[in-house]
Amino acid sequence: MEAKEFLKQYQVTRSRISNMEATVQDMEDLLEKITATTEGERVQTSGPKDKIGDLVARIMDYRDQIMREWNRALDQLAEIEKVISQIDDSRLQRILHMRYIERRKWEEIAVDLGIDYRWTLRLHGKGLKKIKDLIN
Q1: Domain range summary for the chain, segments of one domain joined by +
Q2: Which residues of the chain have pLDDT under 50?
């Protein structure tokens, strides 16, 4: 695994979680619309044709998946932070943390550290090399 790929695992999982949470929100919105339109009706339903029950079950399944993804993300975060902490240069650690954990832009990182934008990129490259050595 390449250094960037290793460091981006957490971001990818967080993005997947955000997408799943948006899907759950859409399903919950749909559920509200369905229940709002059927509240005044007196219809007897049962069995597999129970659309509301099916939707509630799917929402619960999605929520379970989201919890599993959060656990995975936390495991990835711990692993990434452990590897970053093994780098002997605290400035490189900070750059990698801000970029891959905090999801900060290069400009923000440079300003935060009080260094030139291009120097930030060079230090990032050094940090990637050290990560590569640590994970291989």
Answers
A1: 3-41+49-135
A2: 47-48
